[in-house]
Amino acid sequence: MNCVKLLVSKAPALQNFTKYFIPFRNESFLTGTSSQYIEDMYTVWLKDPSKVHSSWDSYFRNSVYSPPPNLGSLQKNEVPVAHYYSRVKPNELDPTNKAIEKHLNVQAVIRSYQARGHLVAQLDPLSIMYDPNTSHSDRYGSPPQELVKNYSLGEEDMNKIFKLPVTTFIGGDEKELPLKDILRRLEMAYCRHIGVEFMYIDNLRERNFIREKMEKPGVMEISNEKKRLILARLTRATEFEMFLARKWASVKRFGLEGCEMLIPAIKQIIDRSSELGVEHFVIGLAHRGRLNVLANVCRKPLYQIFTQFATLEPADVGSGDVKYHLGTHSERLNRATNKNVKLTLVANPSHLEIVNGVVLGRTRAEQFYRGDDEGKKVIAIIIHGDASYAGQGSVYETLHLSSLPCYTTHGIISIVVNNQVGFTTDPRHSRSSRYCSDVGHVVNAPIFHVNADDPESVIHCCNVAAEWRARFKKDIVLDIVGYRRNGHNESDEPMFTQPLMYTKIKSHKPILQKYSEQLVKEKVVTDKEVQEEQQKYTKICEDEYLKASKETQIRLKDWLDSPWSGFFEGKDQNKMLSTGVPEATLMHIGKKFSSLPPPQLEFVVHKGLERILKQREVMVQQRTIDWSLGEAMAIGSLVKDGVHVRLSGQDVERGTFSHRHHVLHHQTKDRTTYQPLSNLFPDQAPYTVCNSSLSECGVLSFEVGFSMTSPHSLIMWEAQFGDFANMAQCIFDQFICSGEAKWMRQNGIVVLLPHGYDGMGPEHSSARIERYLQLCDDDPDVVPPESPTVALKQLHDCNWIVANCTTPANLFHIWRRQIALPFRKPLILFTPKNLLRHPEARSSFDDMLEGTEFKRVIPDDGEGSKNPGGVKKLLFCSGKVFYDVRKARDEKKLEKEILIVRVEQLSPFPYDLIKKECDKYATAKICWLQEEPKNNGAYTYALPRMQTLLKKTREVTYVGRPPAAAPATGTKAIHNKEVENLLRDATAL
After folding, report:
1. Where residue 49 falls among pLDDT bands split at 50, 70, 90?
2. Which of 285, 409, 831, 935 has the fewest CB atoms found within 10 Å of its own CB?
3. Residue 963 DSSP symbol
4. pLDDT band at 744, cuts 50/70/90?
5. Does residue 609 sit in helix, strand or coil?
């Protein structure tokens, strides 16, 4: 090809062109100047074949060449019209020959239908999508009514026979068709009740898959048996909503009326995917239609759903949640395939699309733990609303995880329940794109828009979706266009804001009625059978309602979406496994982590890393660890014990501050890496460390979902800087902080938030300690009763753990403690930046051996501790400020007068240990020391608890920065002055 281009560029004139080279056989690769030369050569040949070289004559005569007329964006390797020229002798052709033009235009028409047929498809059941009186038309304009009008084809051409190109399947076994049949078949495929966007996909095999599924004659035909099944499922979906409306007319339930086809759609995807080998379906959706999905997809016992409408007391501890946020997990026989399937419906708050990442994490974890590396056994199905799918940023963040190696779930089936309105906002005010599903283009997902009032078209799209995902392991989007028969909720008045739409809705037949009438007319079913099916399901609902009326309590455990079978059984909640390990294990891990890759790998390591490895080796020999070795010791000892460890975040492989280096990169070979911690022991558990996309919300929600799947893994997410976790605040609020209280769902995720004031500005200093402490659910006015197990009981009763470690050994223990606990709690861990290499932030092997444990409080054991009466000032602090103040104190030689106590675990608050320190130094002035501004940090959390502990008999004063709107200054000089003032106040007597 390059030779051809070179020769073309050297050709001085067209008449000499043919002397330089023979025709190139794959001209679709030629672009620019070379392509233009061939077009000119073709024009010469049309006029007089003798004017060109004999090889060119043969080339054009045998139809190898495909001239590019006005065909739009011709795709690579597609040869649309080469067939036509073999039918006419060259000397009979001329540049104005109408026959050639007609053939070319037919190809253009076919391509136009494939690319733009969705613009004229009848997608809207209400027929308002292009009504000039509705909100849609002034944005989009009226679509073209004829895709052929610009291609010089008229009535006189309708009966002419045209040879079909290889880029269409409308002919089936036929190679030629009259134009009228070509147009009829194209309209049936692309302009009826399905509009499909797929021509932007750059893979020809994938495009042809869609073409075949849409164009092949008979591909959309459906058996009478399948029609009856659709009707039965549609009946259950409709009757369920009607039953709830009769029994609880004024209660919010966010019903599915107007898009009842969602239920048969999901069930068809499950049926077809089950046939193709899928065993577990992880489902996410917001509130609309959730109860119906619970009842008719997950087969949740109806009486358990109905009890949620009653004002019953919960039988479990926890706040619970409204009925349309709850999740579930079920295993049942799929009658359509006679195979067992698992269904997990993930609980979701009213933040509509925030569950997406959680679903993907759950799916990835299920695939990981069952060794489903290709995603054949577990898939994700996510149901969206039209406004939220277009408007929520979490959609984009999670879509971009679809092909990332450590995050892919091998294709998501996304279903948009398109009500054509969001709350009270019409589409022209809720998005800037034509379709609500346009975000799917970013991952080259085919998008099927389908009219919800055509059940058979919906089912066809569901089959295609299941088959696409099974074959290509890629995302696909189904946009089911319906409407919302009621307002946003059942007590809402939609005529306030959508009068024209709801005027039409009032007179619009429900889909069950329309489809029943259709099947009766087709003699597939009788009126009697329709009525019997409805009465049968109504009786089921009535029986379950009677059963629910006898219930006295609501059991939240019935709604677990992630049951951990066997985890809690037989565990003593008052006992915890040891977190210390033998010295031989520490030494082995240390040596492996500080060694170069094995010589046989011939792995070239960066010179700077060779120095780092040697420094680590020296520390191991001295039985000392820094922060990176503390992390490695924790991970290595856990994987030795069979615990899978996963560390994810934007720069976690190297570490944002270049301290970790868990993945070594070959310096002369691309994509060649070595992971020391994955090569410690022959039978170790996997260690997954993976850099993520530049996302907080999407990736953290993914890791939350991953951690829900198994209690036997340590799942950690690290923010690049603690400040950036703000972008995932919804995940902290809705899933991590309150997930157990709302949904009885424990979670052991570890969140690492780099924190520390180093003069780097307001966005690189504070991880907002105060926010996480504010979300802790312990009572500041209640001191837990002292007992040998008080620390463990506090952990059991809290909603999450908040800690700020100052030593590598404490980091080692708190990571291991996450697995050693007989239950699971999230851990919010503030990690340092300058302590990663601080010469004093070191620990001895002795602090990690068997019998040692995490220190909630680290007392000052210096000279002053030997004479408590001589201590004048007792400083309580947390984090790296300890090292700064200790240095300033020691320089002033105040070791005997000022003691500094480190509070490593901020919540649950270590009342017992702090009381011990306060009692020991009964005459000392008590201060809370922090480097954060007074309205930030831990001060506002610690103060009331210390006052309660001391019964307000001793004053607790504050030492730190004054209150501030911004978390830190952006000026180095001001920072230095603030540090100077802080150290002065801290060491003042």
Report:
1. confident
2. 935
3. P
4. confident
5. helix
Same domain, 878 and 795: no
Burial class of residue 218 (count of CB atoms within 10 Å of its CB; 0-12, 13-18, 19+): exposed
Half-sphere exposure of 454 (CA within 13 A, CB side): 22
Instruction: Sheet containing 801-804: give its strands across.
Output: 687-691, 644-649, 713-718, 750-754, 827-831, 801-804, 905-907
pLDDT of 87 above 50: no
Q: What is the pLDDT of residues 171-186, one digit of tens each?
A: 999 999 999 999 999 9
Q: Who contacts 842 (Cβ-Cβ below 8 Å, separation ≥6)?
A: 619, 624, 625, 626, 807, 808
* 526: pLDDT strictly greater than 70: yes
Phi, psi of 717 (to 5 degrees): -125, 135
> Could you give the percent of the chain with pLDDT greater than 90?
73
**Contact partners, residue 381, CB within 8 Å, separation at least 6:** 266, 269, 281, 282, 283, 284, 412, 413, 414, 415
Same domain, 616 and 695: yes
pLDDT at 487 over 90: no
- Write out the two tokens for 782: 């209640």
What is the Cα–Cα distance from 961 to 979, expressed in whole angstroms?
A: 9
Place of tokens 């952006």: 970
Q: Which two tokens stand for residue 217?
A: 């004659």
Q: What is the CATH number of the domain that holds 898?
A: 3.40.50.11610
Question: Is residue 954 over pLDDT 90?
Answer: yes
Question: Rounded to 5 degrees, what angle do the CA atoms 158, 162, 166 make?
Answer: 135
Please count the structural domains in the chain: 3
- State both tokens at 486: 């009621």
Contact 616, 664 (CB under 8 A): no
pLDDT at 51 over 50: yes
Burial class (CB in 10 A: 0-12, 13-18, 19+), 922: exposed
Where do the H-state alpha helices sit in 48-144?
Answer: 54-61, 98-116, 137-140
Whole-number pLDDT of residue 287? 85
The predicted model gives 274-287 an average pLDDT of: 95
Distant-in-sequence, close-in-space partners of 907: CB < 8 Å, separation ≥ 6: 773, 776, 778, 798, 800, 801, 802, 941
Q: Who's near 795: CB < 8 A, 6+ residues apart?
A: 801, 821, 823, 825, 908
15 domain-assigned = no
- Name the token pair of 796: 């059991």
**CB-CB contact of 716 with 647 (8 Å):** yes
Cα–Cα distances (Å) from 433 to 41, 202, 386, 428, in that order, read 43, 22, 12, 9
550 and 403 share a domain? yes
Within this chain, do residues 536 and 632 fall inside the same structural domain, yes or no? no
379 with 466, same domain: the answer is: yes
* DSSP codes joined into one string, 130-161: T-TTSTTHHHH-PPPS-TTTTTT--GGGTT-E
Global confidence as pTM: 0.88
CA neighbours within 13 Å on the CB side: how many for 204?
A: 9
Q: What is the pLDDT of residue 130?
A: 61
DSSP codes, 241-309: HHHHHHHSTTS-----TT-TTHHHHHHHHHHHHHHTT--EEEEEE-STTHHHHHHHTS---HHHHHHTT
Q: What is the CATH number of the domain that holds 678?
A: 3.40.50.12470
The predicted-structure confidence for 64-76, as pLDDT tens digits, reads as follows: 556 655 433 334 3
3-state secondary structure of 350: coil
Closest CA relative to residue 168, chosen from 213, 105, 203, 226: 213
pLDDT at residue 317, as a whole number = 63
Report pLDDT digits (tens) over 537-592: 999 999 999 999 888 887 777 788 878 888 888 888 889 999 999 999 999 999 99
What domain range includes position 835?
583-847
Asked if residue 563 has a cis previous peptide bond (ω within 30° of 0), the answer is: no
Residue 449 in contact with residue 460, Cβ under 8 Å?
no
What is the residue-averaged pLDDT of the chain?
88
DSSP 3-state of 105: helix
Rounded Cα gap, residues 725 and 732, in angstroms: 9
